[in-house]
Specification:
The protein is α/β, with parallel strands linked by helices. The chain has 12 helices and 10 strands. Helix 1 links the parallel strand 1 and strand 2. Helix 1 runs parallel beside helix 2 and helix 7 packs across helix 8. The chain starts with a strand and ends in a 6-residue tail after the last helix.
């Protein structure tokens, strides 16, 4: 079996990319015959590409391929918001990559700020039930669906982890329709690419368990409290509890995984594990500013006081 992963990065996120791709290789190479990681390259230096290739070369059955897309990104009108780098639209251009690799029938897209902590072969083997993509329901799904006029019964998923049926995606011309939608109303989209993908693919989305995109907001050990704070969460208490103990993909959404600015210990331990194994183990983590340091300190003392810091 060949498993195909796709990630997007510019040079600023190379450290994240290094840890993320190492976690993929560490868990997938022993489980399958061949692992291909495609990097949609938004301006990574040759030095950093060489380092990423050297890391991948530690695994005999791994291949890392860079596909330059900086010029393609000009086709998308970005939202005028400093929080979003235009690289977020990079995943939309994978059909052009497939012109060179037509054998790809299923892709697993990952944001650079995720860490894989287990084999994901089941995502490549599962029945997609005729859907175009699969992903984990976002905790803000109710609000975003209302804002985008998406029917309540249609899922709204977090786009940080996407299983993609490439044939169905291309048959429905999803990339171009999504780009056209973003260009038409860029300022109305809170989460531009995520909002657009969910809007375009109404009725074409399969929902995965939270195990496959465990975001920090779902890692509170006090699950009844968690459910009170997110009253419209798409998952049951049992599903969240299972994910806490059997998570496969950990997402550091809205946090800097290198500074630990308030992320939970369950995420911090995964970062430390793969950071120490990767070729980026010499890079020291540091806090971006004093606010992040004090936030981390408060979270740490709170977790230690409740005993949660030591649990997994």
């Amino acid at each position: 079996m060949t498993t195909n992963f796709i990630l997007v990065s510019d040079d600023n996120y190379t450290k994240n990319l290094g840890i993320c791709t190492y976690s993929v290789l560490h868990n997938m190479c022993p489980a399958v015959e061949h692992v291909r990681i495609f990097i949609m390259d938004c301006g990574i230096t040759e030095e950093n590409k060489a380092k990423l290739r050297r890391q991948a070369a530690r695994f005999d059955n791994a291949e890392m391929i860079f596909f330059p897309i900086s010029a393609m990104l000009d086709e998308v009108t970005p939202k005028e918001d400093a929080r979003w780098h235009r690289a977020i639209y990079g995943r939309l251009f994978f059909p052009r990559l497939m012109e060179q690799y037509p054998d790809i029938d299923r892709l697993l897209y990952l944001d650079c700020d995720v860490i894989v902590d287990g084999s994901l072969t089941e995502l490549f083997e599962m029945n997609m039930d005729g859907k175009v993509i699969a992903g984990v329901a976002d905790s803000s799904d109710r609000e975003r669906k209302a804002a985008l006029d998406i029917p309540p019964e249609s899922p709204y998923i977090n786009s940080g982890v996407l299983v993609i049926d490439t044939a169905r995606w291309n048959a429905l011309d999803v990339s171009q329709r999504t780009i056209d939608y973003i260009n038409r109303i860029p300022e109305e989209l809170l989460l531009p690419d995520q909002d657009a993908i969910n809007y375009i693919l109404q009725g074409q989305i399969k929902v995965l368990p939270p195990d496959y995109n465990l975001m920090w907001m779902l890692t509170d050990r006090d699950i009844p409290k968690l459910l009170r704070n997110i009253p419209h969460l798409a998952y049951t208490e049992e599903e969240v509890r299972h994910a806490l103990h059997h998570g496969k993909i950990y997402h550091y959404a809205a946090h800097d995984m290198w500074s630990f600015d308030g992320i939970t210990p369950i995420h911090a331990r995964r970062f430390i594990k793969y950071h120490n194994l990767s070729d980026w183990r010499g890079e020291k983590r540091k806090f971006q500013n004093l606010r992040h340091f004090f936030t981390w300190l408060i979270f740490t003392f709170k977790r230690m006081a409740t005993g949660d810091f030591w649990k997994d």
